[in-house]
Amino acid sequence: MTGAGAQGPAATTAEDPRTDAELVAAHVAGDPEAFGEVVRRHRDRLWAVALRTTGDREEAADAVQDALVSALRAADRFRGDSAVTTWLHRIVVNACLDRARRRAVRPTRPLEEEVGSGEDGVRTGAALAVVDDDTPHVEAQLDVTAALARLPEAQRAALVLVDMYDVPVAEAAQVLGVAVGTVKSRCSRGRLALAELLGPGGNR
User: Fold this and answer.
1) Does any domain span residue 54?
2) Which SUPFAM superfamilies does the UniProt record give (predicted)?
3) For the chain, where are the E strands, in sequence order?
């Protein structure tokens, strides 16, 4: 009895030994806890990518929520051709870009207004990691974040994945659903644009 209990749901709540792919398959098979474990494992990272991509905490939170609902509903279509993390990143980035397109017709609040105090922890994204201590490092970080927000969504998403989260170009291409060459091109153009924005008088 005790031995059986040690192997039951209570044992997997703290640290589920199943892989991400096994959890997705278990969710599709009807396990009510499996997808929640996937979310617990990756939510911080997905939130950080969403925050970087949108530049707005509320938009990032909404995008992650939209993405997780989409992933929950589309789990039966996951075939394991890529890692679960790649699949989730693709859904989150697409949700961010969809929201960005929808709000393009209305003004975007300055990114500085979205900078948090750091109470939620620095792992939730660069904007949350910026604190008002007047040091040159923080000022430079804020300049980069503000300049990034001014790039086209496609370039921003590529740079966030490749340059800021060290996602390999091939994996970023899978996430964004484009060719490897397209990711390289977007990164190249984005870097040039950032250099101009961060140059003397550029980031105004």
Assistant:
1) yes
2) Sigma2 domain of RNA polymerase sigma factors, Sigma3 and sigma4 domains of RNA polymerase sigma factors
3) none
Assigned token pair, 146: 């503000």
Question: What DSSP element (H or E) covers 188?
Answer: helix 180-198
In a domain, residue 204? The reply is no
Cβ neighbourhood burial of 16 (10 Å; 0-12, 13-18, 19+): buried
CA-to-CA separations, 134 to 42, 137, 149, 181, in angstroms, rounded:
32, 8, 21, 40
Alpha carbon dihedral 192, 88, 58, 138, in 10-degree steps, equals -40
Residues near 163 by beta carbon (within 8 Å), at least 6 away in sequence: 187, 191
| pLDDT tens, residue by residue, 16-57 | 899 999 999 999 999 999 999 999 999 999 999 998 888 889
CATH no. for residue 35? 1.10.1740.10
Q: Which two tokens stand for residue 100?
A: 């960005």
- As a whole number, mean pLDDT of residues 101-114 equals 49
Q: At what angle do helices 34-54 and 57-74 cross, to 10 degrees?
A: 140
Residue 106 structural domain: 13-198
Instruction: Report the pLDDT value the prediction gives residue 37, as an integer from 0 to 100.
Output: 95
Between vectors from CA 108 to CA 106 and to CA 114, what angle results, nearest 5°?
150
Domain assignment of residue 111, yes or no: yes
How many folded domains does the chain comprise?
A: 1
